[in-house]
Amino acid sequence: MQREIRTSEIIELSGLLFLHGMALGAWFVPLGTVLDATGFQSIKPFAFATSATAALVSPLFFGALADRFIAPPRLLRWLALATAASLVLVSLAIQRGFPSWAVLAAIQLQSLCAAPTSSLSVSIILGRLKDSGRLFGPIRAMGTLGWMIGCWVISALGADSSTQAFHASALGWLLLALYTHSVAGKTPTPSGKRLTLRERLGLDALSLLKIRDHRVVFITLTLFSIPIAAFYPFTPTHLRALSLERTSAWMSAGQVTEILAMFALSAMLARWRLKWILATGLGLGLLRYLFYMMDRSGWVLGGVVLHGFAFTFTIVVAQVYLSQRIDPAWRTRAQALFSLLVSGVGSLLGYVGSGLWFRVSQQSIGSPWPQFWGGLAAAIAAVLVYFLIAYRGRASQAADPGA
After folding, report:
1. pLDDT tens digits, residue range 111-166?
2. Number of other residues whose CB lies within 10 A of the CB of residue 57
3. Are 170 and 87 in contact (CB under 8 A)?
4. Which tens digits make up the pLDDT trace of 239-273?
5. Which of 67, 137, 352, 373 is buried most, with the most CB atoms less than 10 Å from its CB?
6. What pTM does this model have?
7. CB atoms < 10 A from the CB of 255, how many?
8. Domain annotation for the chain: domains and CATH numbers
9. CA-to-CA distance for 119 and 69, rounded, in angstroms?
10. What is the helix (H) or strand (E) element at residue 388, kind and residue range?
């Protein structure tokens, strides 16, 4: 049984997520703008899709390592160093005018290194919390604050469309690697049994889908991640079309409301059923794209503001669900499976599909944005209907799902 966590530990874990969020935000938000400005706009949908393809490969494998062999903070340190090095490689490839396929390959390498880090950070935090419903929201808010700071730094440097953004992100990853030395982590004790190849690769986590409520949550968030994948590649483009520059700073408005939602989360988890919190998040995601359809700067910025609530009440609540309903021995693999399905399968389909859908929308008369965002809103509405019908809200078993 987990002991009560001390204030110093809360500060320690908050610092971990702050640095992680700062490094991620300084890379992911300006990525599309940098590619547009440097003549690589043709690979933008595929560049964002690299994070999804990486999530199909690396999180389960590294999650299995963290559950069975290597302390998660140590594994996170190695991956942070590798991510920093790969970011420098991406910057050099763009600056020296490498072919598009080479730039894309460098971005894919960066994604392979970074993809497992989010589920590792979440598992480190949730593994130390006795009351995840009460404490995870405020601690997770520090990751959002870090993301905002990363965006503000990029805009303050005037690097929204420059590879300097990638240098700043690389520095953030180096700081994260250094910080992991102060994060406590226990190396797992080997079980002594001979592991199958399936277990070594973390594929045994798929057995979690045998339980109905787990399956519905995984499917819902995977389907939801398809239309919301368009948020980061296309919202900055829409903002610039409406004459709103400094897009990294404008995009951080969603993180402001995300922080507010994180602090409200503990009260909501104590009073609301998980079903209605998740449904609220799906509904706000739908409302955001309906705002975007208005194709006016005020409405689009209003949609950006809603992003924080939609993200928290779906993705973050699902992570809390997994920490509360899954046996601790499976916790890292459960978060890794969530990353694979949501950031991998869903986002891959979303990045590629939204790119194709935008090309179709450009053929419409007048502005393409109402048709583009309207189609994505219809997809979210269908996901919401599925969740309300399929989710039963019954307490799931905490036993070994493979039993």
Report:
1. 989 988 887 887 788 777 766 566 777 787 888 889 888 888 888 888 888 899 99
2. 16
3. yes
4. 888 888 777 678 777 878 888 888 888 788 878 88
5. 373
6. 0.71
7. 27
8. 7-185+204-390 (1.20.1250.20)
9. 16
10. helix 369-390
